[in-house]
DNA sequence: ATTGAGCTAAACAGGT
DNA sequence: AACCTGTTTAGCTCAA
């Protein structure tokens, strides 16, 4: 353990080894002398680039008489037994002592923990820093960890400097295992130089580090490879290593025979194949490889893709970060990442969309040329016009939805007791009795329903937008629930007539509360049913202040204005490293798919086009709200809802029936929804109100409605709120 | 079924 | 040569 990387060693000419083949290292054995093959093969396969004079290594094992450069993600240590093919894959032959198992220990890089680990598999265990470790134990390796297996002692060393000079004066390049891709690539790349892959070398492997997309540029092997590597580092790396080494071996032709015989790289055919495969891979264009974040590495609030179109993102960026002179493309990238940290953590690809958008969208104009690119600016007028049109479209859709709802409601009101067996799709049958009663009802009912619908639209206005179908469902259900609730309460109180009309007349504020609660419940129900993300933790605006923006909006706004972004994201290409280590882990295993999973997982951080990718493979429109086609909430079901909720209740129905006794799940849910709104549940004493029948109108609900409509009608002045699409 | 918007990916050219 | 930037095209999904 006396020799160090730069120490003098009489065997300096042959004191280098790599993971390419098993090396005998035991200092006390007669096998101490390193085989010629090893000397000859020294660095052959691992000097990258013609004329390169240094070796790349992740870490080093400092044996007493030589240094072993760890250049693969996994090395196997044990006792080499002649004729035992299971020991062929040994990287380091620790000696002939029987105390050493044929496969005794494994040193590997754990991508999950971002550290090297030692796994003891030998029966007799090992000593790590003089502490006995029994077999089956895996433990982390730190810099200068002392390991003893049998009589063989060595030290695990992590490189600390950009380059280390060994005893030969050779430069040894430390490599971060997270850059394994680059290393693997260089193995199989005839033309690759070490500079590309070791640019990141200043970080030690155990220091969690974010790979700067700029500085970590490496030749691309394809996402599948990256992911494979990260998903199962050991297995795949070993495989690739083999292929790469085989390629190198094949390349070296005559030198093949010089490779240590214990190495498993002998099959010429396999080597040829690997070479071909390596060559094939080289044909792919070079591409930046960015660190892949696992969901748990991403702050929760940045896991979901902001619900803005790219044009909105860019426009917002230009507004907030832009100057008179405009913004360069890279500044726009950076700005978006700062404003919407999701884009700091998500895989690359969005930049392409940004460029595409800048080019195509007429809202963005080139201000002036700078360097090789343009400075981009925002044509506010054009953009505002586009936004206005979009909003109009959405409003139109909502209006249509409510009109649809109105139609259904009217249908129901005309035929409230239609048997279930009758299909709603068929024309509404003529009512066979009490036509006068129906027509009498319809006047008041129409007004009541119309009022309810208006209120619903008002309450919905500030909420998260869903597609037309979902909105219709929510509104329908909320309406049904409201009617049911009022009817139920009225029945419980023994009130005759049409309580809805009475209530609206006497206390519209209460109606608003009920509607709001019902809207909460319905939203939860429908979104849950459809597998859509819930609007937010508290979907409804406070009923007492109906004009306030809905929480859903503030939820969205967190993306518009992270205050401040928790990790100061990407100030410069190099500043990524400023991310706390807790957040800057390296992606190793395949993150769980999240595109279809509920919030707060990453919605759809895609790995473009590669099915085996780390990220969920789901499709497109990731900037849109999650909207899915689900079962139709058709006329029939709507009418059934109305029927269900409006069925005359038995006269003897218990007054103030406890919620828990309610059998109707929907109603339960609605009441639960009410409970979500503490104000509502506290203040809502409908039964009492109806029983007293004399509640005074405290608030002019209609006036409030108008006020709120005025104040929310066109919120153009506030760019943030106008963003919600 | 059609259409348009938006997203994603890729090819390509030109510049640094 | 490698990378960045900008343009264009194509294919896809989704909603209207």
From TrEMBL:
Residue ranges of domain FHA in the record: 75-133
Specify where the region named Disordered lies, as residue ranges.
1-31, 164-218, 407-444, 529-636, 700-725
Q: Where in the cell is it found?
A: Nucleus
Q: Where is the composition biased (Polar residues)?
A: 14-31, 183-193, 572-587, 622-636
GO CC annotations on file: nucleus
Q: Where is the Fork-head domain?
A: 305-393
The protein's UniProt keywords, in alphabetical order, are: DNA-binding, Nucleus
Q: Which spans does this entry mark as compositional bias, Pro residues?
A: 532-544
Task: Give one GO biological process term.
Answer: regulation of ribosomal protein gene transcription by RNA polymerase II
Q: Matching PROSITE patterns, A to Z?
A: FHA_DOMAIN, FORK_HEAD_2, FORK_HEAD_3
Would I find DNA-binding among this entry's keywords? yes
Pfam families (UniProt xref)? FHA (PF00498), Forkhead (PF00250)
Compositional bias of kind Low complexity = 194-203, 407-439, 588-602, 612-621
DNA-binding among keywords:
yes
Question: Entry's InterPro entries?
Answer: FHA_dom, Fhl1/FHA1, Fork_head_dom, SMAD_FHA_dom_sf, TF_fork_head_CS_2, WH-like_DNA-bd_sf, WH_DNA-bd_sf
Report the superkingdom from the record: Eukaryota
CDD domains reported in the protein's UniProt record: FH_FOX (cd00059), FHA_FKH1-like (cd22701)
Q: Which GO terms describe its molecular function?
A: DNA-binding transcription factor activity; sequence-specific DNA binding
Q: Which residues bind DNA?
A: 305-393
**What's the protein called, per UniProt?**
Pre-rRNA-processing protein FHL1
Question: What is the organism field in this record?
Answer: Pichia angusta (Yeast)
The organism that produces this protein has a lineage beginning with: Eukaryota, Fungi, Dikarya, Ascomycota, Saccharomycotina
């Amino acid at each position: 353990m006396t020799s160090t990387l730069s120490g003098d060693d009489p065997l300096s000419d042959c004191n280098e080894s790599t993971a390419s083949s098993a090396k005998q290292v035991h200092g006390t054995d007669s096998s101490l002398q390193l085989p010629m093959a090893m000397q000859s093969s020294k660095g052959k396969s691992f000097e990258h680039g013609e004329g390169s004079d240094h070796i790349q290594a992740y870490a080093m094992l400092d044996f007493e008489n030589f240094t072993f450069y760890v250049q693969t993600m996994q090395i196997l240590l044990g006792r080499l037994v002649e004729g035992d093919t299971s020991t062929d894959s040994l990287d380091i032959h620790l000696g002939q002592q029987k105390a050493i198992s044929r496969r005794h220990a494994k040193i590997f890089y754990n991508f999950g923990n971002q550290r090297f680990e030692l796994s003891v598999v030998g029966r007799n265990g090992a000593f790590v820093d003089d502490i006995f470790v029994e077999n089956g134990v895996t433990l982390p390796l730190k810099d200068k960890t002392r390991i003893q297996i049998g009589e063989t002692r060595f030290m695990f060393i992590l490189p600390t400097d950009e380059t280390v000079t060994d005893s030969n004066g050779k430069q040894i390049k430390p490599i971060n295992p997270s850059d394994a891709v680059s290393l693997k690539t260089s193995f199989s790349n005839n033309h690759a130089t070490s500079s590309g892959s070791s640019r990141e070398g200043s970080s030690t492997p155990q220091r969690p580090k974010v790979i700067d997309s700029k500085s970590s540029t490496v030749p691309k092997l394809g996402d599948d490879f990256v992911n494979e590597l990260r998903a199962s580092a050991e297995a795949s790396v070993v495989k690739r290593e083999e292929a790469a080494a085989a390629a190198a071996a094949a390349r070296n032709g005559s030198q093949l025979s010089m490779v240590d015989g214990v190495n498993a790289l002998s099959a010429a055919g396999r080597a040829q194949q690997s070479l071909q495969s390596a060559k094939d891979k080289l044909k792919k264009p070079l591409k930046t490889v960015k660190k892949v974040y696992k969901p748990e590495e991403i702050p929760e609030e940045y896991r979901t893709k902001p619900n803005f179109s790219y044009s909105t993102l860019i426009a917002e960026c230009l507004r907030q970060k832009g100057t008179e002179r405009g913004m360069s493309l890279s500044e726009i990238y950076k700005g978006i990442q700062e404003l919407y940290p999701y884009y700091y953590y998500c895989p690359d690809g969005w930049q392409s969309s940004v460029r595409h958008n800048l080019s195509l969208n007429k809202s963005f104009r080139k201000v002036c040329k700078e360097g090789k690119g343009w400075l981009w600016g925002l044509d506010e007028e054009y953009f505002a016009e586009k936004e206005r049109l979009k909003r109009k479209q959405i409003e139109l859709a909502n209006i249509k939805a409510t009109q649809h709802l109105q139609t259904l409601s009217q249908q129901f009101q005309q035929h409230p007791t239609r048997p279930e067996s009758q299909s709603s799709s068929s024309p509404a049958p003529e009512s066979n009795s009490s036509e006068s009663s129906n027509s009498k009802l319809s006047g008041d009912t129409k007004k009541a329903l119309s009022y309810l619908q208006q209120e619903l639209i008002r309450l919905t206005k500030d909420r998260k937008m869903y597609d037309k179908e979902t909105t219709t469902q929510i509104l329908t259900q909320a309406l049904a629930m409201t009617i049911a609730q009022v009817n139920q309460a009225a029945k419980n109180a023994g009130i005759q007539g049409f309580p809805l009309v009475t209530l609206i007349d006497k206390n519209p504020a209460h109606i608003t509360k009920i509607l709001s609660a019902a809207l909460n419940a319905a939203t939860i129900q429908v979104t849950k049913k459809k597998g859509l993300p819930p609007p937010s933790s508290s979907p409804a605006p406070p009923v007492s202040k109906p004009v306030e923006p809905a929480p859903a909006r503030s939820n969205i706004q967190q993306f518009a204005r992270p205050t401040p972004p928790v990790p100061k994201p990407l100030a410069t290409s190099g500043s990524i490293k400023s991310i706390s280590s807790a957040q800057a882990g390296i992606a190793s295993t395949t993150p769980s798919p999240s595109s279809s999973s509920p919030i707060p997982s990453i919605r759809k951080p895609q790995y473009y086009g590669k099915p085996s990718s780390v990220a969920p493979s789901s499709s497109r429109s990731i900037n849109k709200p999650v909207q899915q086609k689900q079962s139709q909430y058709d006329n029939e079901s709507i009418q059934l809802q109305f029927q269900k909720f409006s069925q005359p209740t038995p006269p003897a129905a218990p007054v103030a029936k406890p919620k828990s006794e309610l059998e109707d799940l929907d109603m339960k849910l609605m009441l639960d929804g009410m409970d979500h709104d503490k104000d509502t549940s506290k203040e809502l004493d409908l039964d009492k109100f109806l029983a007293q029948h004399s509640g005074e109108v405290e608030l002019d609900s209609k006036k409030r409605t108008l006020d709120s409509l005025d104040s929310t009608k066109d919120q153009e002045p506030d760019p943030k709120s106008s963003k919600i699409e």
